[in-house]
Amino acid sequence: MTRKKNRLITFLWSLIPGAGEMYLGFMKRGACIMGAFWGLLALAGQLQLEIFLLLSPVIWFYSFFETGNLSALPDEEFYAMEDDFILHREDFRKAKNFITSHRTASAAVLIIFGVSILWNIFQGIFYRFLMPWLRLPGELLEFLRYLGRALPQTAVAILILWAGYQLLKGKKEELGL
């Protein structure tokens, strides 16, 4: 059974994703949020895909406001809350069904991310070891480096725009417009 805690200390712990929930006694929920936040940061850093970092504020704000909402609940509702995981097996089954039903789009996303990761790896090798042998002028070398960094980001941006367009198109068809 969880019990209410000091509001100031709850606020301070809520600044760390998942820690506020854990402080309030919701260990499963807090561990899920904390794992998602730090796992996302680790994944973005390891794969050098900074676009994933755009999700970190979403997780942080969710955790911050959920902790505030939990601590503001009336005593009866707070004590009735059960500690549970954020995601359950059926959520993963739904995601698997969604991915299966949208196989082409899912494959395109995976291919673009895979190519982006490989691009980052080979770009590093190319600029560090092969470019010095070519003895190109500094401005051309800088342009090629910029282009090398911009291509994967451009591909991901195009994918995001295409997905947004598909969502709007689907909504428009759903409304019969």
The biggest sheet amounts to: none
What is the ordering of alpha helices and beta strands?
HHHHHHHH
Radius of gyration: 22 Å
Q: Strand tally, please?
A: 0
Strand content: under 5%
Could you say which overall geometry the principal axes of the C-alpha atoms support?
extended
Tally the helices: what do you get?
Answer: 8
CA distance, first residue to last residue:
52 Å
Mean pLDDT: 81
> Which secondary-structure class do the elements indicate?
mainly alpha
Helix content: over 70%
Number of domains: 2
Oligomeric state, counting identical vs distinct chains: single chain
Low-pLDDT stretches are none
Provide a concise account of the structure shown.
The chain folds into two domains: 7-87, no CATH class; 92-175. With 177 residues, the protein is mainly α. It is 79% helix and 0% strand.
Describe the fold and architecture.
This protein is mainly alpha-helical and 177 residues long. It has 2 domains: 7-87, no CATH class; 92-175. It contains 8 helices and no strands. Helix 3 runs antiparallel to helix 4 and helix 7 (103-134) runs antiparallel to helix 8. It is extended. The mean pLDDT is 81.
